[in-house]
């Protein structure tokens, strides 16, 4: 009894207004229904009688269609349409519309903010344990078929600030139930904000199973000044997260085994081609207020790394400098902060960003 519509920029339908609409004693349905032509007069009473036990006011609207004066029907229709659109706005514009999953699904996400043409871009790198997916398998292999909803909303009101992104991830062949599947998703987000980011993962083979991941991510404004993206810490092999010509495999939670090389990736905005840059990358124990004074001692104790280098800004066709470095560091197990500082020697602008790094015991 409700009309659904779909905007050109949305993959899903939304509630528009009560449907069908009655006019001149008829309930207007598609112009050429099965059998041809509109139904006979009086069918609006059938609609009214059917709806009455469930929705009295909407039933009253259809009953009014049988009256000689169409004015009554029109004034009854307007509040129904307003109500329907308000419900649609609440459903589509609020994170309270998240699905109610009854079965757990083991999933995690790395979240990164980059700047794309026009507006910032949030990229999520999802990890889902195949063994947690239903239905159970006796062959040792699991079919994977997932829906993912990626939304960005205001942290207070939870109103969605940008359009939801819905994707389906379904590898063509089953994988080992002991494996973890990884894939990247992306959506646009407003700048100069600290939005609430919600990612809902649903198992299409068992709709009751899913997981909702929620966090916040500060997104700075890019106004032409020097800016560095979030830092990605990943494996040294190529993977599914594409940034320009780079193909990255982020490490879930930025956790790396002791003694294993890892890759650091970031993007730099606001430079001119060939601008001279000074870059420093420092890895120090997290939440240690005296790290700078003790840096040399930390390096000797395998609890710190400091690297400095100079390089020209090499911009790709979109004006972005993309940097990828492989790091081999002797770090003891623990939690670290990875700090990158970029200084443009031409403008004397500098910017510092940091990320987490976790070193686990050797395998």
Give me a quick take on this structure.
With 363 residues, this protein is mainly β. 13% of the residues lie in helices and 41% in strands. It starts with a strand and ends with a strand.
Can you walk through the features of this model?
α1 runs antiparallel to α2 and α2 runs antiparallel to α3. 13% of the residues lie in helices and 41% in strands. The relative contact order is 0.11. The longest helix has 23 residues. The protein has 3 domains: 91 residues, no CATH class; 127 residues, Immunoglobulin-like, CATH 2.60.40; 140 residues, Distorted Sandwich (Coagulation Factor XIII, Chain A, domain 1). It contains 4 helices and 25 strands. A 5-stranded mixed beta sheet has the order 5-14-13-9-10, with no helix packed on it. The chain has a 5-stranded mixed beta sheet with strand order 19-25-24-21-22. Strands 15, 16, 20 and 23 form a 4-stranded antiparallel beta sheet that branches. About 7% of the residues have low confidence. The chain is mainly beta and 363 residues long.
How are strands sequenced across the largest beta sheet? Answer: 5-14-13-9-10
Fraction in helix:
10-25%
Q: What is the percentage of strand-forming residues? A: 35-45%
Instruction: Report Rg.
Output: 28 Å
